[in-house]
Amino acid sequence: MLLLVAASHGLLVGSPVCTMHRPCSVHMNGGKGFGGGEATRDPEPTAVDPSDPKGKQQAIHKAESFADYLARRNGGATPASAVAPAAAAAAPAGTEVETVIAWQPAALSKVAEALQLTPKEDYAADCGYDAFSIGDAAGSITSFEGPGAPNVAWCSGLLLKGGDTARSALTAFCGPLTDVPHLVASAGVSDGGIDLYIDWRPRADAAYDPAFATLENYPEPTDRNMFAQGSNRKDFAAAFYTEDAAAWRAELLALDGASANEPLSAAAMATLSGGPLLIDMRLPLTEAAAAAASDACAAAVDRWLGWMTSAGEMKRELAAGAKQTATYARDTKVRANHYGFLLKRYTAAYGEAEGASLAAADAGPLDEAYVGGAS
Q1: DSSP tag of 181
Q2: Does domain 17-46+65-363 have CATH number 3.40.50.1980?
Q3: Residue 272 — very low, low, confident or very high, per pLDDT cuts 50/70/90?
């Protein structure tokens, strides 16, 4: 696995390749571009005026539903079982495991339906991870995209269960039409405890530092760059990282038996594009903690979906041109660094070769070319 450091940006840039299953090549988008795709948030198609030469282009076309897609892909299986056709076998003993990962199928279905995402089933299948096994655990990855109005560059749902391990995750990287944060949510069981990770990753440099608990704790700006970072922090706090969201995070960190993992340094936060409400914690393997972790992931998805479906009302749309191009360029590096983040976690949990392949399949293609994207 070749990982290159882009010194000019201080960012990890990787080229993911699936090594244990079928080769998983990084490839380009199949011709759909942001601002030009057929997908829409409105599942009801509109009529096409045959006398209007632009009628077909401007109409809202009927998209395949998430349930229809799952039924087609799995020969009529129900959506809940189809999202993870292999993950139902060999579950660890205890209802806690089932509870920890219970949120994911419904959350993934909700996102795909609400945003009218397009299944991207070929990518995980090419990697051999649409249905797979690791040791005693069986799992699946289901992926989507939403060029155009949905504004989703990549959405991935991971389920893995069996033996003494379980993992559920939902990741969504937004397109450059808005500055809604990316979503990363994961809950699982390992080493006799529950792992919970949630982050809404910002779309512009805000220089977040876990050492500063509030905006008021940050030092006064001494140059133009610091001033811009401070302005971004204030803007994002008002729109996304609100007092209500911060209070919700504090309640999670205060759960019985909860322990936060070591906070990231400012440099690590910048590389990851970590948000100020990032949650990385362990919980005891109890039914109450399992329910809390599952509910937290579902709530994180709901909050993000609310931003996505009301981005226009929130005035979070980005003007075409330099702003979208700069956001796309930054997102490209953030997605590459997310692959590095998954690579570290998955290799630690499942071994170097299997972890690298799983990270590549979950992270998705990293060089997709969208209309309006930076070169």
Answers
A1: P
A2: no
A3: very high
Q: At what angle do helices 103-115 and 287-309 cross, to 10 degrees?
A: 10
Q: Angle CA(159)–CA(93)–CA(84) in degrees, nearest 5?
A: 20
DSSP-derived letter for residue 36 is T
Stated pTM of the model:
0.78
Question: In the structure encoding, which two tokens stand for residue 23, read together?
Answer: 């080769």
Tell me the pLDDT tens digit for each residue of 79-135: 443 344 333 333 344 689 999 999 999 999 999 999 999 999 889 999 899 999 998
What confidence score (pLDDT) does residue 95 get? 87
* Distance separating alpha carbons of residues 297 and 284, to the nearest angstrom: 17
End-to-end CA gap in the chain: 24
* Reported confidence tier of residue 47, pLDDT bands at 50, 70, 90: low
What confidence score (pLDDT) does residue 121 get? 83
Task: Return the pLDDT at 165.
Answer: 84
Domain segments of the chain: what residues?
17-46+65-363
Helix ranges (H only) for the chain are 55-58, 66-73, 79-83, 95-101, 103-115, 121-127, 224-239, 243-253, 266-272, 287-309, 322-350, 352-363
Please list, in sequence order, all residues whose beta carbon lies within 8 angstroms of the beta carbon of residue 212, skipping any fewer than 6 positions away. Answer: 218
Other beta carbons within 10 angstroms of residue 247's beta carbon come to 9
Residue 171 corresponds to which tokens in the numbers above? 């990741």
- At residue 289, does pLDDT exceed 60? yes
Q: Distance between CA atoms of 315 and 164, rounded to whole angstroms?
A: 46
SS3 293: helix
